[in-house]
Each structure stands twice: as C-alpha cells, then as structure tokens.
Write a structure and sequence with these properties.
Strand content: 25-35%
Helix content: 25-40%
Low-confidence stretches: 77-88
Largest sheet: 5 strands, parallel
Strand order of the largest sheet: 8-7-6-5-9
Number of strands: 9
Number of helices: 6
Shape: elongated
Length: 203
Amino acid sequence: MEKTIDARGQTCPKPLVMARDTLKTLTQDDKLNVVVDNLVSAQNLEKMASQMNLPSQKVQQGTDYIVSLFVKKSMFIPQQEEIKCEVPTKTDNSFVVVVSSNVMGHGDDKLGSILIKGFIYSLTCLETLPKAVIFYNSGVKLAVEGSEVLEDLKTLADAGVEIVACGTCLEFYQLKEKLAVGKIVNMLDIVERQAKATKVVKP
C-alpha cells in the first residue's frame, strides 16, 4: 500500500508527528510519501527515517519536496515509535517551563513567533509533561483569547499541566479579562514554583 500525506504549510515538528502517526497504521512493504514545502522539514524527515532504520528517498518538485519512507518489517516496529500528542497523561512534579516572551529567541520576531508555536506544540508531544507552564511579561499573550497556541495549551491543561500567568503582566498589557486558559498568579507564586522545581526549562 502507498499512502501520501500533505504537510505543506505545517511548521516543525508537525510534519514529523504527522508522519509518525501515519507510520503506525502501515505494515510491511508499505510506502509513505510526505509532501512538505521547505528543505528543513524534508531533511528532518530523512533524519527521522534514519533513526527509525527506514529507507527513505527525497525528491524535489518545484518548491515542494516529497520524502518517501519505505516500511520494512525487519526494520520497523511501529509500537516502539509511538508519539501521542493528543492527550498526554504523565506529569513530572520537578519539571516546570517558564515562558517570558510571546516569541522564541532573539532576532526576527516573525521567526520567533513560528518557533514559540513549535515549542508549545512540542510540549504536548513529550512522554512526560511538565508540572506547570508559567507565563510572564509578553509571554502572557500566548494564554489569552486569539492566541495561536491556545488549543495546545488547553491540551496540556486537560492532561494535568498547570497553566499560570502573571497577573501584573496581564494588567500591564490590558489582557486580564482575556485570559483563556489557566489561572492568574502573583510573583511570589511564580518564584515558589521555580524554587521547588529541580528542572526549569525556558525557550
């Protein structure tokens, strides 16, 4: 069987997750074609195939790339490569994520916006989720109405991750009434949560 999925317009890591979820439904001698619209995504798919011991082939068609993955039973065991981004269940009480900006990194804000969306989405794909995601400064903008990562944050919240936002920051940006997920906390609460954690991750 040959199957094709269209991952054009999707930012990292979504093409990888789409491919892995589809691979779980395939069997020996099946072929999966993944269509992407940028070289980085194509190279990441090739790297994933290599890590899974799957033969792959990349073909460029105009501005698009088609990466074909060939399923061989002797090489590929789908159950060992499962990724479930819908509703993860395990949280780690020693692990918190701190988000201080609505963009990731320094440089171009458009790129930073793409990166932070990929980062939040990737959190939903972790095998063990953080105890909490803490938003302050412009990071609180990610937890309000109209945020492009709102659905991913709700997925995390549904899985037991505490989503908290700095009340002073929400007031500063006049967004206190627009908080769409999680709860409002003060700076003491933010400091205590980080002090209790043995691992703090900041994008």
